[in-house]
């Protein structure tokens, strides 16, 4: 099992070759793609998952490891509640290496305005059956008895959980294969093959695969792939930096965050640390193209965003990344197999300082590992989960906006049943593709 985020140096496990034909091709080997393949295989479909680099090589092994219902957009919350139940089942079937534990999520507030926001969201979530509770100052320090006084209160959901990202998604991939899915790494899908106005296959770097349906679950790469097919979504990516400490005394068994830093306990006694809200953003052609759509959320996050002049070479929104290519040409997805950005070490140093201020009995924690990932975002901070009416057979499942790891099992089930034309069980209206062109106002979800 890998000891850190998965990268292009991680040994190849699913070498292929891909089949010549199947029912469904899933593009992307993150948690959404893997769990979509899992459930499609369970439903009797022949499914091939094509990953340009490594399974879980990007954000699915680089996230915080939180499995949270707390703070979700209310349209996502029912799917997330289902997902938590699925995580519990996965823990039973895939074993302790998954790292699943339900020790809760705590949001910590430094201001009355934050507490007021918590209270509004809590009332709505409680009405939907969530076990979320507002926490007084005293209750916060019951959970964090060794912390210095700095928080007015908090929000706590005891049923929320955590898992180990770089172990969990590869284990899910093994489960998908056990159910009959075919996974192929180092296999970029270059273009769709559209015949008679509908999907008839895909062109990969290893040849054509005939299929009736394609699911685009390519994370930060989805918009680039879709634009080549004439399907445009306002999707950008931000860089999020993360670190793992050495083993430390326990200060809280679950996950916690305020506006300065976030932390969670790991299986080995270390902690995952990250900036609470800070991220880096590379300016590129799509950033200017979608500036208006992102303006509302940008206003909220402006102070926590570090702008950089240009994305590294071959990134999805780099200035020289090609926007058009054919199925027999080398595509951008082969030029850069895995997004492996350098973390913002200054931001992580501030996190170490803030952790030391909160827990002076431990002091400034030593780090054994740092990394970063690119989080794909949508202006209203909810995903696109929909069929593409203009290209029958094409389904989009992207833009999870940093929410993908926890909601992955539930969303995979939803996407699989969307493909299979089975009852979804949830209202997907907020996630529709048409919202970007039907005049709807894009209202950002909660930024708790």
Structure description:
- With 448 residues, the chain is of the alpha/beta class.
- It folds into two domains: 24-104 and 159-436, 3-Layer(bba) Sandwich (FAD/NAD(P)-binding domain); 105-158, no CATH class.
- It is built from eleven helices and 21 strands.
- The strands form five sheets. An eight-stranded mixed β-sheet has the order 5-6-4-14-15-16-13-19, sandwiched between helices.
- Helix 1 (31-42) runs parallel beside helix 5 (165-178), helix 1 packs parallel to helix 11 (404-419) and helix 2 packs across helix 11 (404-419).
- The radius of gyration is 21 Å and the shape is globular.
- It starts with 23 loop residues before the first strand and ends in a 29-residue tail after the last helix.
- The model has no long low-confidence stretch (mean pLDDT 96).
Relevant terms:
FAD/NAD(P)-binding domain; globular; eight-stranded mixed β-sheet; alpha/beta; single chain; 2 domains; 448 residues; 11 helices; six-stranded mixed β-sheet
Question: What are the SSEs and their pairings?
Answer:
Layout: E1 24-27, H1 31-42, E2 47-50, E3 66-67, H2 77-94, E4 105-109, H3 112-127, E5 132-135, H4 137-143, E6 153-157, E7 161-162, H5 165-178, E8 182-184, E9 189-195, E10 198-204, E11 207-210, E12 213-216, H6 222-228, E13 236-245, E14 255-257, E15 261-265, E16 271-275, E17 279-282, H7 285-289, H8 291-301, E18 305-308, H9 332-335, H10 345-358, E19 367-377, E20 384-387, E21 394-398, H11 404-419
Parallel strand pairs: 1-2, 1-12, 2-8, 4-14, 12-21, 17-18
Antiparallel strand pairs: 3-7, 4-6, 5-6, 9-10, 10-11, 13-16, 13-19, 14-15, 15-16, 20-21
Helix pairs in contact: 1-5, 1-11, 2-11
